[in-house]
Amino acid sequence: MPVNLTPTPPERLRAIAGARLGITAAGIKKPGRPDLTVIALDPGSRVAGVFTQNRFCAAPVTVCRERLAQGHAIRALVINTGNANAGTGSQGLADARRACAEVARLLKCDEQAVLPFSTGVILEPLPMDRLLAGLPAAVADLAPDRWDKAAQAIMTTDIVPKARSATVTIDGHTITLTGMAKGSGMIHPNMATMLGFIATDAAIGQAALEALTRFAADESFNCITVDGDTSTNDSFICIATGRAGNPEITDTASAAFAALREAVTQLARWLAQAIVRDGEGATKFMTIQVNGGKSRAECRQVAYAIARSPLVKTAFFASDPNLGRILAAIGYAGIEDLDVNRLRLYLGDVLVAEQGGRAAGYREEQGAAVMQAPEILVRVELERGDACATVWTCDFSYDYVRINAEYRS
Amino acid sequence: MPVNLTPTPPERLRAIAGARLGITAAGIKKPGRPDLTVIALDPGSRVAGVFTQNRFCAAPVTVCRERLAQGHAIRALVINTGNANAGTGSQGLADARRACAEVARLLKCDEQAVLPFSTGVILEPLPMDRLLAGLPAAVADLAPDRWDKAAQAIMTTDIVPKARSATVTIDGHTITLTGMAKGSGMIHPNMATMLGFIATDAAIGQAALEALTRFAADESFNCITVDGDTSTNDSFICIATGRAGNPEITDTASAAFAALREAVTQLARWLAQAIVRDGEGATKFMTIQVNGGKSRAECRQVAYAIARSPLVKTAFFASDPNLGRILAAIGYAGIEDLDVNRLRLYLGDVLVAEQGGRAAGYREEQGAAVMQAPEILVRVELERGDACATVWTCDFSYDYVRINAEYRS
Fold first, then answer.
1. Where is this site: Involved in the stabilization of negative charge on the oxyanion by the formation of the oxyanion hole (chains A, B) (predicted)?
2. Is residue A230 part of a domain?
């Protein structure tokens, strides 16, 4: 069951001027389930993206990278669930381009102006006949107020659709942002996660939008893990339609840039945390905070060692303060010169370990009380520098095994 | 249930001249269960060891390292289960030394001649009163033919005691080897695993024994993983009592050294694989073989990415040839310049993927047939060099979660 996560009511999701969404059920994996989404953008929109670092990246990731690198003005996105189009070789690339070409024909734009996205099972060819047959219905459905439907249509093992809106005032103009994301398993993003999209009506230059996108990804999707598996399809896309009327933001040192970056980052962080809350089999949401490191990189290393450990994750599932497992993970995180006698480990506000062992005042009941809650803070004070990092993760339950032993069937 | 692993019948375990073992039930964690073992060595025995690289190493590991580094002639080992004496700070070190001192008093040897070993729960103080009270009974029990009892007395969540004997002829002398190991979870050794011991009556010099021990560890315990968690207590110890009558082996380029090293390595590999077969919740035993890499290190990196992936491990549990998950793991293993279009993936003898996608001749029934077996070979041909590496692991089942959610209770 998702941890403290309910669907955002549709009326609280705001349309973004210049962006329309259309959804249909193309029967890509199962009949009758919305699985195909087209997002059409008005001329003048800008798009930036970051993608998985997995060497076995999916065909649509390759196509997106190419088209964004070549600076094509993007007019549409096409997103299918039910099949990842990954591990599909040259046929997969041809299929991704063919889907874009068909969207371009229907929308009367250049085919290089379309970006493809896929999510679902790996190593199986995309069912092109059904996908192509579904596109006219998706295009016919295009409307600005379809974010709730789109958030549902991009889900795989997700239980809760993940979408949210926000507004921020910049230079006297109200800027609106709406984002959605999907992902529940194979979540250990390296650059971005399995399909996250944020659209805003802000006017912003391409270079500034790209800088903002990288920053937001690093502070959100790149700080989560469910199972330590980096997906082949991770993609995080920021769209700026430029319709809010604000003076175009081009200076990355400006207050306007900072305000928009903060708004996008907050939304991205909410979406990233929503993925963890809806992580496969999750019953607990854990924040792993590592402070006092020599660098952000080493803090992340320690945080991820804890967040990935199956032993730590099963102990959280059991609400068992078996905290030696956290110490063991800190110890094998790979920091060669770590002095374990200096660090302190807190569970919530409770000091659990210091001077290489259990804290003198610690009582098991205190740890057990913190572990009962659905949201748990693990804090490590390394006491060797000023850097810090935070990672969000979930526990490891019977249901994780069930979901992943049954997926595909 | 352990995968193709049954206890070695006691009569097939050979005594090693010069080594006696004594076991008792000291009630360290639970009353009535054998949990305390003393191994007494005749004068002239040589001992070498390798230990965990976990920075949060247990107190007994620190004491072992010190005493071996200082070149003390080792006369006894004391091993308890039920408590790891890890994350116990300065008190833990004092406790480990106190246990050794008491063994030394009972055996009338120098206290620096005793090595301590612990395994069990982390972050709880060793119950010294019960441990010290149990030592006289363990010493009174000392006899050469107790390997089967000792292999049981060092278990934690292990289901099957893991011990085995072998003989090899060197320079016309029959050399006998007997080894035992324990470990089932928190298994991802980095140098050695959670308590492995091999004793031989061979005569071998200290430097040669140390070289042999490192080699055997690298080819056995350092090639397995159950859950990716490197323990705080990993220790692998080789004992040579020198009673076989062979000329002392000192030249590491000699045929005698090679023969003994091969015998020890084979035994260590059997013990390491036995740990995987008895991995927590294991239902399948997987051999991950990566060939054609530029270096052994990168082959190990790819093999471990596959072996650690919860998605791969749950797919094996389900006998589901969801092989895209293996490609995804290869892709995120961290080899920056990997050309995924060149590599080939085999499941058993079946070519599953090549040229970046599913092999043309592959049929799902073939993959499913291989997955049904309790022992599965995954082979990756990287096609970029001559190096190779093999890693052994097990699947991820409901029982892994159950065992680790319940451990301690």
1. 119-120
2. yes
